[in-house]
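Throughout our pipeline, every protein is held as a single compact record rather than as scattered files. The remainder of this section carries one protein's record, kept here as part of the documentation.

===
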Amino acid sequence: MRDDVIARLAAANPVPGSVPVREPVRVRRLAIAVALAAVVAVPTVAFAGRLAGVLGISNEGATVPVQSVLPGDSTLDQALQDLNVGSTMQSLGTLNGVAFYAARNPDGDFCVAIDHVDQTYYKGVFCDLNADNFPSADVRAVSFPRSLEGIAADGVAKVAFVDASGTVLDSTPVVGNLFESDVRLPQGAAAYLETLDAQGNVLSKQKLPG
């Protein structure tokens, strides 16, 4: 059934995507739907977790009806239904004009929705379909694959995209378990998603597929 969900989302707009994976290299199974301008894209991205009490992070958020998460976008509303998100999500707050929501579906998959509140069409949804859900020792952040927009575990102060040689392509601080950068990288430019603590020590280095 999960494979059917991924296939349906991909069929909506077959845009190649990438998914952060944990080492050793193994592609994480995720389902994502993104609305950019008037276009729905379906890359794959990393996400999983245990919400505080349910999400596994300090930011517990506030419960809101799922209908209020991405109002007016029928495609992403349908994606939330296909991913079995349920009737509510946790509103985790807004950072740099981006509203973040999270929930865990009955299968235990960690699902996220984002809404650029000042932009009509820049919205996105993704779920991590892996058993080794975020947060864990190896999976301390989840992000869309081309821009640092996602959720980090407790203790993570900064996240960064780095290339294969270790050069930092973009980095951004974590605030209340949330991070957001308006830098959009070319497809495949980033090789790893790194998380760092307040002293700049690397906590995890998650491999991104090429």
